[in-house]
TrEMBL record:
PANTHER family: RE42071P, TRANSMEMBRANE PROTEIN 161B
Keyword Glycoprotein in record: yes
Keywords for the protein's UniProt record, in alphabetical order: Glycoprotein, Membrane, Transmembrane, Transmembrane helix
Membrane-spanning ranges: 106-125, 137-157, 169-188, 230-248, 269-289, 367-386, 462-480
Gene, per the UniProt record: TMEM161B
GO cellular component terms listed in the entry, alphabetical order: membrane
GO biological process, one term: regulation of heart rate
Species for this entry: Phascolarctos cinereus
Places the protein is found: Membrane
Family of this protein: Belongs to the TMEM161 family.
Annotated protein name in UniProt: Transmembrane protein 161B isoform X1
Membrane topology: Multi-pass membrane protein
InterPro entries: Transmembrane_161A/B
Amino acid sequence: MGVIGIQLVVTMVMASVMQKILPHYSLARWLLCNGSLRWYQHPTEEELRLLAGKQQRGKSKKDRKYNGHIESKPLTIPKDIDLHLETKSITEVDTLALHYFPEYQWLVDFTVAATVVYLVTEVYYSLMKPAQEMNISIVWCLLVLTFAIKVLFSLTTHYFKVEEGGERSVCVTFGFFFFVKAMAILIVTENYLEFGLETGFTNFSESAMQFLEKQGLESQGPVSKLTFKFFLAILCSLIGAFLTFPGLRLAQMHLDALNLATEKITQTLLHINFLAPLFMVLLWVKPITKDYIMNPTLGKESVPLMTETTFDTVRLWLIILLCALRLALMRNHLQAYLNLAQKCVDQMKKEAGRISTVDLQKMVARVFYYLCVIALQYVAPLVMLLHTTLLLKTLGNHSWGIYSEFSSDSLVESHPFSGSVHSELPSTDEKMKVTVTQITMALGGLKTIFTPLLFRGLLSFLTWWIAACLFATSLFGLFYHQYLTVA
């Protein structure tokens, strides 16, 4: 309690809430089972037989006998059958049959719990201003990012297991594309993309060299800039490969949701939601946003519209608002996906020939059974964007107040990831005292190496990269579904 104090209490309370309350009152389950989403039920074989004008009969003339056993061909019906699917609201019992429902429920509910812990911690830090405590909300945010990446990795490996389709080639192709793109972006001067990555890495290298010199070690730095950017590009290519199919799926749901929407305001919000990653990308393009806002030319004088600190805060708020908009429109996109069942049936009616009843039932049922996969592809990138932004605020020593007078000189002095230990040491145990002193000095050394300047540059780049990957893949998906698919 002496090290973390109130934050430890908040963590224990939230862990208890997750164990006792969330299984009964789950936001993830409510998003699917609140009555607003309707799924299409597949017709039974008897219904299809009646629609096709067939009567149930015994052994068919086409039945064959092998080794004394009768083997009959599956029942087939004309594709242009007059079939209308019945809809039903999703219930909690229906969710038991959904693929990846436990993963979806865990990710959403844990994200809610981590966000609540983060908000309570932010209020605590703003009121109490503790200087010797580790900000435990950072651990929660990192866990959320870990779970989101794990889920996306699991979905990507599922695509890799498909032998017949081209999903594996698509993932590999986009992975190489994003690797080349990341290498190109990392060599762009900060006059155009102001992540602060160069400044942060320089500060990190100098601090690490000074720390090693104090320990009596000679070193030219922990890692070269080229190696650092190379591994960062590999990480970016993996993130891009994981976000490939979420972006492609979002494009298709966006088009279907636009056709489903009847009100102009809903259509406008859908367009803003689709372009939200582009808006986030432009927030770090210096000539378009920061230079224009910080140094606008009004007549003969250049009067800045806001300070640099205020601009950083506004940028954080805009990302969070766009994430909230995407969450609010989740129902529209999921319903647009569920409507694919009827859309597939309508497309089938335009084709000639026959189809087996089993294949027709699978075609309709498959849409509903993979609902949670689509929900994860929609939610996981949103979770990554939100909590990367929260980490950027905390680890980068930004402020939530738009008009706060935050000095950039305090970046190195105050560090939210500080692990300074403050406890009363027993005077009778000298070994324990020496050990705690060594741990304190080690954590203090890490504090001087991993400064907010480094976290600002790294997290700004990762936030920008996630948004850029989402927009690139969704834009390609929009082009594909609009111009390359045959209606």
